[in-house]
Amino acid sequence: MDAFYASVEQRDDPALRGRPVIVGGTGGRGVVAAASYEVRKFGVHSAMPMREALRRCPDAVCVHPRISHYSGESRRIFAVFHEFTPLVQGLSLDEAFLDVTGSIAVFGPAEQIACEIKRLIHERTELTASVGVAPNKLVAKIASDLRKPDGLVVVRPGEVRPLLDPLPIRRLFGLGAKTAPKVEALGIHTLGDLSRANPAALRPIFGRYTERVQQRAAGIDDRPVVPDLDEKQISAEETFETDIADHAQLRAEIVRLADRTCARLRTREVAASCVTVKIRRKDFTTYTRQRHIEPATQETRVVTAVALELLEQWLAAQPRAALRLLGVGVGELSPATQLELFTDAQSGRNRQLDTAVDDIRQKFGKVALKPASSLEPRPLAPRR
Fold first, then answer.
1. What domains can you pick out in the chain, each with its CATH number?
2. For residue 220, is pLDDT > 60?
């Protein structure tokens, strides 16, 4: 959507139309939640301190956010998406990825679907949307930002590199204000530069993610559109920089991913009754293995044990497989308050340990503690 919060306010109050509108907190530490296109001309943007925004545009009209109202509008917009495909992955209230591959036979080419979605959104909400149509999520995201507001950019497979190569590196999602200057200091200013750069020069900046960053800069992105399912599933996955065939290393990755997934369960105060392991081979063939567990849990130890067993069963059938991705997901979620009904002594100790780990990470960062079994074994030094 285009300047979503601000556009809703301008639609609802005709007196705001054509005026510079800022949605956000007005206190001493308030920040900009959304900026209309009229105020963006002054350099005002989301996440900017409100004081700075008003310094740049003293005549701006400040509006306090109405999140529940925006959520209602968001549901109307997402309902339009679901008329064309069930494969809708929301990024926020006003942004989503859609996979319309299976919809083309019914609704016509992807560009036609995009035009119809834009038309219906405007007809039902009086709001405009900008859409990018592309072979993958990364390129679609970049394309959707190129002709705002009310834009439509279609990028066909053979047009990806010609489109991306001349764009500044800051167009790459995740390459923020702290990282971009380090890359630019190397004389790398465009996505084409980044995709063709010497990996050795980039490794001090991106570490083990160097290959992935360069692939993204080249428009390579194999991530599928994953439906939200109203938060019915929580997962963590990792695409490896190089394919992994070593079983000990794969087990360590499963332990780490289960730990991340369970931390998110506890943050959201829910428990799970189903564990899923996602496995992708180097040829992109993808497998899932799933098991139901009773009672529902959010304990790292329980989920890890199940995930490891599912992985071991798969590896037993394909012992020499090299994997490019592993994931651990949990589903069939229920409120964590129900856990009190099923607590035994061991479960109580597990939960106390998980709570202690969560507290330490909250104070000292997510990497302050790692499961010991997720650490790669080191060779022993010879005795002298």
1. 4-65 (3.40.1170.60), 161-217 (1.10.150.20), 229-374 (3.30.1490.100)
2. yes
